[in-house]
Design goal:
The chain is an all-alpha fold. Helix content is 79%, strand content 0%. This is Odorant receptor.
């Protein structure tokens, strides 16, 4: 399983996913300059919040929100640049290491199923986020006229030339859009890596069923008992090694994304709650109300998908543990029983993704966020 082509293309356009080596120097120049522009734009938004003169022209809440989105996009950008080698190594491991190679058509069908799920997830999330961002930024761009730019610049700038005004407006809007797009592409990359874990655990569950069948076949063969025990030990050892490899890869992926997803989860939750305050100031179902629902809807979708993919990985591991325990191995040799018990002990600890190593995003945490959102909405409204 690889990064979805749409996500890979967006990451390359944003200058964070290195292309072929023969174009690396041009890409490096583009990557550095784009990062500098994003950083300057982010600083300009926060300076707009702090500067009394600019705060009279641009809304401080909006400037702070745009600045924070740009900050999150910049952090995610730097994180991918820093972790790209580790992420690439994971894909190389999946491609070359024996425990992760597809062994038969059934395993290929399992991987294809998870890739189809990833494809739907990527297309739905990317489409909703991009369309929502375009509608929101388009409305903002059209609601400002010369000489006031759609986004804060940190200092008072008087622009009288219509061409220069439009050029600056489009540049600022593009930089704001890049921050949103960076968040979207980072999250879809996270979904990809988590779906890889789900796929590998599902394959591991299938291999365990095959392992048990092989043990039964080996037990029925007319071989020397010592030869049978050697074969059974090798079969179980191969599975334990495979499980350890998958567990190690799962931990690597969680370590790469844990802190940033925690920051995103916290920011989206706070943004969702603050958006409820903005919605209470609008007339229900008015044009203003509907336009203000775009951003909180994206926050809600983002949190929901993070909880969904984390819960999916947890369920896959739980199903694996259930499959390991749900086997009648009483007819096996005493030595094999001991090996099976060791296997159960090694796999009994549950594995789940933790945001910032603090809490697990799940259906329960999603329900808590929705409850808080509704509660705050009603409290402010009344």
């Amino acid at each position: 399983m690889q990064v979805h082509r749409l996500n890979s293309m967006i990451l390359k356009i944003l200058g964070v996913w290195k292309p072929y080596k023969d174009r690396y120097y041009i890409f490096k120049f583009y990557k550095i300059n784009l990062t500098i522009f994003i950083f300057i734009f982010m600083i300009a938004q926060f300076v707009t919040v702090l500067n009394e003169d600019t705060a009279k022209i641009w809304d401080r809440k909006i400037a702070f929100s745009v600045g924070f989105i740009s900050l999150m996009g910049l952090i995610k950008r730097l994180n991918i640049m820093y972790q790209q080698k580790n992420i690439t190594d994971i894909f190389e491991t999946l491609k070359n290491d024996k425990p992760f190679k597809i062994e038969d058509q059934s395993e290929k069908n399992i991987q294809d199923y998870h890739y189809r799920c990833l494809k739907r997830l990527t297309l739905i999330f990317t489409s909703c986020a991009v369309i929502g961002a375009i509608l929101h930024l388009g409305k903002k761009l059209n609601s400002h006229e010369l000489p006031i730019l759609p986004f804060g610049t940190g200092i008072l700038v008087e622009i009288s030339n219509q061409f220069f005004y439009k050029l600056m407006s489009y540049i600022l809007t593009t930089l704001s859009f890049i921050g949103i797009l960076m968040t979207v592409s980072y999250n879809t990359l996270f979904f990809t890596m988590m779906m890889i874990i789900c796929s590998q655990v599902d394959v591991l569950k299938y291999r365990y069923q095959i392992m048990v069948e092989n043990l039964k076949i080996n037990r029925s063969d007319d071989q020397n008992i010592d030869d049978k025990l050697i074969i059974e030990k090798k079969i179980i050892t191969d599975f334990v090694d495979n499980h350890s490899e998958v567990l190690e890869m799962s931990q690597k992926i969680c370590d790469i994304f844990s802190t940033i997803i925690f920051m995103q989860y916290a920011y989206s939750t706070i943004g969702l709650c603050l958006s409820s305050y903005v919605l209470t100031r609008d007339i229900l179902l008015s044009a203003e109300f509907l336009s203000h629902t775009i951003i909180p809807s994206l926050y809600a979708l983002e949190i929901s998908l993070i909880c969904y993919i984390s819960n999916e990985m947890k369920n896959q591991y739980e199903e694996l543990y259930d499959a390991i325990y749900d086997v009648d191995w009483t007819n096996f040799d005493q030595s094999t029983k001991k090996s099976m018990m060791i296997l159960m002990m090694k796999t009994r600890e549950p594995f789940f993704f933790k945001c910032g190593k603090l809490f697990e995003p799940s259906r329960e945490s999603l329900l808590a966020v929705c409850t808080i959102f509704i509660l705050i909405f009603h409290l402010i409204q009344y």
